[in-house]
Structures are given as C-alpha cells and as structure tokens.
Design brief:
The protein has 3 helices and no strands. By secondary structure, it is an all-alpha fold. The longest helix has 13 residues. The protein is globular and about 35 Å long.
Length: 79
C-alpha cells in the first residue's frame, strides 16, 4: 500500500471513532492472518507515529502485545 492509501485508511477509521491503539490491534491481527504484508504493517505503524521493529530483542522490556496484552517475558523467539 502507498503512504497515501494508508493515511486515507487511518483517517476513515478515526472518523468512525476508533482509537489509534484499536486500529493498530486490527492491523496486527490482519498481519497475523496474512491479510497484509510486513511492509504494510510497518507503513501503517509509522504513519500513526509509532516506532516499528521486527526485531524481538529491540522491543523494550515493558512491551505488551497489542493483541493479547501479554508481556514480552511470556514470548520466545522461534527461528
């Protein structure tokens, strides 16, 4: 998706009353289900002004999964 498409999508969702956190949860769920690519997730995340990383080790220790509200300590890296 282009940055303009992303911005349009985000504005539509915000106009419907969704918070940025709720939008991000939907986007992560879409990525997990294979509906969007990692590059699209990165574009959406950065368009919202959030820091994006796909490096687990780079996540702060107090990170919480936006989908299940579980902390980083409950996850493990699978290679």
């Amino acid at each position: 998706m282009t940055l303009e498409e992303v911005k349009e999508f985000l504005e539509e969702r915000k106009a419907e009353g969704e918070s940025e956190e709720d939008i991000l949860k939907v986007l992560y769920a879409m990525y997990v289900k294979g509906a969007i690519e990692l590059s699209d997730l990165r574009t959406f995340t950065e368009a919202l002004g959030w820091k994006f990383t796909d490096e687990f080790e780079a996540l702060p220790e107090d990170w919480v999964c936006p989908l299940c509200s579980v902390g980083k300590e409950d996850f493990e890296v699978v290679e």
